[in-house]
């Protein structure tokens, strides 16, 4: 418990500064390259640390009613709707499994944990989605991953940590299960709900694999467009005109990358304070 020595403090500051630079500099290069002009990008070999002639031409090209605009809407819709549905299903199932004496509670819990240890393979999942008639449907991006076992265990542990006296007091007041969940459990679980909701939102927003399996290219979300254009190096074609983008490839790629990254970066700081209380409390109790 003694005060750290100046050398130790200096080493911590240097280490923290190095980590910050490792995180921030690549993102700064990506943002700067997306704002640079075509001439400047070519002159600097494809990467720009600080643009001398900043322009929004790359963003105008990809957001002018093309495939990126459509993909952005798809990702936003799937993320919002999927997160709400996943939270609703996870909360209700976690509450049922957290209460003692629930009929079939232990077998259902073991079944859920079994899926965590032995996840389904790609081919069985594809065949199931196909038999359900969900191919080329946005439902295929939500329904197979509606409940995440880790998030379920965290919420179940958090609900078990709520004092039993509160449940008993609500029962004495005549509250049923739904009333207890809505009026007692959920208000006390804001931290866990915020963290689990962020986990679901990030998973839906970053999901591209299921889109590549189940959806046609005109229904792709943003992350699949990003993977196809940036990683695979394929061109982006405007869905309204059928013409390929004419801007510098590197600037357009970096602009798509920024658009795909910024929404989560904007949400995370508001939920960061809930992480320790929301995740650790539920995990330790479990």
UniProtKB/TrEMBL annotation:
PROSITE patterns (UniProt xref): ABC_TM1
ABC transmembrane type-1 domain location: 72-271
Cell compartments where the protein resides: Cell membrane
Keywords carried by this UniProt record: Cell membrane, Membrane, Transmembrane, Transmembrane helix, Transport
Transmembrane segments annotated in the record for this chain: 71-96, 108-129, 141-159, 180-205, 252-271
Keyword rRNA-binding: no
Pfam families per UniProt: BPD_transp_1
InterPro entries on file: MetI-like (IPR000515), MetI-like_sf (IPR035906)
Membrane topology: Multi-pass membrane protein
Keyword Cell cycle: no
Family: Belongs to the binding-protein-dependent transport system permease family.
Protein name: Carbohydrate ABC transporter permease
Naturally occurring in which organism (per UniProt): Streptomyces bluensis
High-level lineage: Bacteria, Bacillati, Actinomycetota, Actinomycetes, Kitasatosporales
């Amino acid at each position: 418990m003694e005060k750290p020595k100046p050398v130790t403090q200096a080493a911590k500051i240097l280490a923290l500064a190095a980590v910050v630079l490792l995180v921030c500099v690549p993102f700064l290069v990506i943002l700067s390259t997306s704002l640079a002009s075509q001439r400047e990008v070519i002159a600097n070999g494809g990467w720009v640390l600080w643009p001398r002639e900043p322009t929004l031409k790359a963003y105008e090209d990809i957001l002018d009613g093309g495939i990126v605009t459509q993909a952005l809407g798809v990702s936003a819709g799937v993320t919002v709707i999927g997160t709400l549905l996943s939270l609703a299903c996870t909360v209700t199932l976690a509450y049922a499994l957290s209460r003692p004496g629930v009929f079939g509670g232990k077998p259902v819990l073991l079944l859920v944990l079994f899926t965590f240890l032995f996840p389904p393979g790609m081919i069985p999942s594809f065949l199931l989605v196909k038999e359900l008639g969900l191919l080329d449907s946005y439902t295929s991006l939500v329904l197979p991953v509606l409940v995440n076992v880790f998030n379920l265990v965290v919420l179940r542990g958090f609900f078990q940590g709520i004092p039993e006296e509160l449940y008993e007091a609500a029962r004495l007041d005549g509250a049923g299960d739904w009333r207890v969940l809505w009026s007692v459990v959920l208000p006390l679980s804001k931290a866990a709900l915020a963290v689990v909701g962020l986990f679901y939102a990030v998973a839906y927003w970053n999901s591209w694999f299921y889109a590549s399996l189940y959806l046609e290219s005109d229904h792709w979300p943003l992350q699949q467009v990003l993977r196809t254009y940036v990683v695979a190096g394929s061109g982006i074609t405007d869905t309204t005109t059928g013409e390929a983008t004419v801007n510098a490839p590197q600037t357009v790629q970096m602009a798509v990358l920024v658009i795909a990254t910024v929404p989560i970066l904007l949400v995370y700081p508001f939920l960061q304070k809930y992480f320790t209380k929301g995740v650790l409390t539920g995990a330790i109790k479990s």
